[in-house]
Amino acid sequence: MTAFPRAVKLAPSLLSCDFTRLGEELQAIADADWAHVDVMDGHFVPNISFGVPILAAARRASPLPMDVHLMVKAPERYLRDFAGAGADGLTVHVEATAHLHRAVGMIRELGKRAGVTLNPGTPLEAVRPVLGDVDLVLVMSVNPGFGGQKFIPESVERVRTLRRWLDELGSPAELQVDGGVTPANARLLAEAGASCLVAGSSVFGPDGAAAGLARLREALA
Ligand code: DX5
Ligand code: ZN
Question: Cβ of 164: how many Cβ atoms within 10 Å?
Fold first, then answer.
């Protein structure tokens, strides 16, 4: 196996945690790099998850950077609220806004890390116009809306392509992957150029989030 040059950040997705124990779950992932917060509106994706009050509660319970993934139509409407509730990074979908540069600019103006993402069926070219303006690019490796789905293998090639494009630009942006990430594919994704992995069901498993997180770290060691 080839070595990969960057330390890979891990961002457990709170979507899979036990919400009756949100504070304890956040403690169990204290060794993570970020906490990933999945906001779903029932329009952009078929599912509804949670919104600003849960982010605010997570913020109060943990010092981890809050990485907020907005699966929401016209996310411009909510950027200020999520920033105010404690988001450190805000990621918007290219398919969800008619004004991508404006959304990215708004996140920057709020002083937050600006992220852009796209569904597995959306050509990578859709994010190219903003690649030089963002702090994070997220490759969705499942169709967003639910935790616990199967990883789409073609995502690896998409990570490789985006790694090349970012390197060509000299961009330090994070290259994140979300959906079906497990200890079995984490290393492959890191070798393809991912710098941050999101994982929900493979972290918040029956033996607890600390053990799940440790298994992912081992896979990357
Ligand atoms: C999917 C969400 C993911 C989800 C990942 O729509 O964006 O962040 O929580 O869950 P797993 O890791 O179980 O696929
Ligand atoms: Zn997500």
Answer: 11
Residue 6 is predicted with a pLDDT of 57
Average pLDDT over residues 70-77: 98
Residue 109 domain-assigned (yes or no): yes
| Catalytic pick among 67, 88, 178, 207 | 178
Q: Is residue 185 part of a domain?
A: yes
Q: How many domains does the chain have?
A: 1
Nearest-CA neighbor of 82 among 64, 61, 106, 46? Answer: 106
Token digits for 213? 């997180």
Q: Which two tokens stand for residue 102?
A: 């404006």
Instruction: Report whether residue 13 contacts ligand 1, using a CB cutoff of 6 Å.
Output: yes
CATH number for the domain that contains residue 128:
3.20.20.70
Whether the full predicted model's pTM is greater than 0.90, yes or no, is yes
Residue 2 lies in a domain: no
Task: Residue 16: give the domain boundaries.
Answer: 9-220
Does residue 111 lie in a domain region? yes
Ligand 1 atom nearest residue 15's Cα: 9
Q: Ligand 1 centre and the CA of 36: distance in Å?
A: 9
Residues with CB under 5 A from ligand 2 (ion): 38, 69, 178
Nearest CA to ligand 1 atom 7: 144
Distances (CA, A) of 14 to 34, 104, 129: 11, 24, 30
**Is residue 207 annotated as a catalytic residue, yes or no?**
no
Q: Which atom of ligand 1 is nearest to the CA of 140?
A: 7
Mean pLDDT of the chain: 97
